[in-house]
Predict the 3D structure of the following.
Amino acid sequence: MRPDGGTVLSGVGVRFGDREVLRGVDLRVDPGELLAVVGPSGAGKSTLLQVLAGLRTPDTGTVRRPGGDGAGAAGSTGLVAQHAHLLPWRSVAGNVALGLDYRRNGGRWPARRPGAAERVAQVLAELGIADLAGRRPGQLSGGQAQRVALARAVVTGPSLLLLDEPFGALDPLTRAELQDWLGSVRSRLGTAVVLVTHDLDEALLLGDRVALLSRPGPLDVVVSPVRDRAGLADGTARRALLERFPDGRAVQDLTGTGGTGATGGTSSVATPGATAAQRAAGRRQLLRAGAAATLLAAPFAAQLLTRSSGPARAAGATAVPGGPLRTGYLPITDAAPLLVAHADGELAAQGLTAPRPVMFRSWPDLAEALQAGAVDVVHVLMPLAVQLRYASGVPVRVLMWNHVNGSALTVAPDVGDVADLAGRTVAVPFWWSIHNVVVQQLLRAAGLRPVLHGAPSAAEGTVKLVLMAPSDMPPALAAGEVAGFTVAEPFNAAAEVQGVGRVLRFTGDAWKDHACCVTVVHQRLLDERPEAADAAVRGLVAAQRALRADGERGARLMSEGGYLPQPLPAVLRTFSGEPGEEYVRTGAVRHPSWHQQRIGFQPYPHPSYTAELVRAMGTTDVVGDTAWLAALDPHRVHADLVDDGPVLRAVGGAAGLAAFGTTAQRTEVVAP
């Protein structure tokens, strides 16, 4: 926390001609505080930022800044906008140094002064991005570029840092990652921060206080009751903020239920005449709105539910009692049945009221939401479902498989064989994931040893495994930070489309028809609403049939409907069917007789797979406690973890599994 005083606005008013934008604004921003300013489009948020930055003199009132003379003299201010605006010919370190190059009056840390390079290195280290120092902007993901923009703003040690919708241009998954990152590094910034946003959840999550800006008039400032994402799960805090806005149009804009949105259109729902940017912005609003569909006060809840619940219930469908069925997902193709079931109206056809699926940023977030009752049905990694039940004590039950295969080991162009990974680093998305299990099987089959700590050694035949967010994997591969990664689609396909990597091996070619993600519910759903669980499985099975019949249509539904933020070409490649002959030539497919789909769909949870997976978990290295595995009997886990009754009823008994190319009995084939 800085020793100088905060920024104080007293009675500030601003007019644009006859239009009053700000009126009677009293505000204090204390050193070390993060104040979030939230309001609809046209409420004056940008004007307030201009006043705080000293770029606009208010028509009435006074502004006192740290180091000022009390009459409005500006103290040092840093600004981070929605787009990073990095110079493509400079490295990350060079872009951060720009903040020193152009510091007013020579600055505290002019770049030519000895110690400037050390200052840049210090800030990059404090913000956890020192490993990016030598990269060019073209080698950064959108989230990484915004981290660099923040470093450039804070390198001069400003007394006030202004963030103008800094994550607004990012896809929802990356945006959530950046929100969590900012929350983790804010104590190292040593400055007051004002964050302007349209996103109520973002304001609550990051702000110590939240200032609500609507019509011209005094700000309504409240202390945020939220300390982590779990505090957002039931929507209470969000609803309380909405109730403080007296203007219905403001509520419509902030929830995406109508009014004038950030894109300048008249509705958050994309229309045929909208630009691509407007459609994308509309989809982002709908993603946020889906989480709040059952939480808003009437009449907006009814409007939002109508816009976010997919096609109407089929005529004659019997309504399932007990309220809406809420689904949650990570934006990867593993979630395809959940997403297509909503987009195609299959859940509604089963009598369910099904709001738009809620997107989460990480597996822990998704699991916490399920445990808290914020969502009812989710897709979860195997063997994460095992870990949740037996290590964390969460009473989850697996109802069906979401999909089979759908993952790969993708490597840099210079890696010709698994053995070439010796002495190098490979990224995995989660320790308790089938990706980590299979990649370790592949490494050991090639005579290599995975290590989780220290540096890898080519001489010793070790490969370093690190956790990495999927969206960061293709950029990290392009920059040479990792030699490969293993993850769900469409990130392997994205690396191919971008020309930064190639598939070395499909995981479905190493473990035949393995399940990657499974459909999971909390035991309470089975106890309290068994009809809803059965109806959900029927809808998901119908979605799997549709995906098997026409994968390209499913890919377009998910991409163009805004469920998946990744580029359509990568999603389409994922659903292109059986990998072609070129993959046989390169060795990515070594068992062409298996006729594996790049991603396939069959719902039945095979007991043989659960048993084999539990055995494999015992030989897989992870960070964290594994003592609980010793108590598991591989042959008994399935009966306790899985309830296959709903899926067997949905497909018409064991005989109905033939339509999905399987039977009730199978033997696991693992051939790394």
Q: What stands out?
A: Residues 88-157 form one domain.
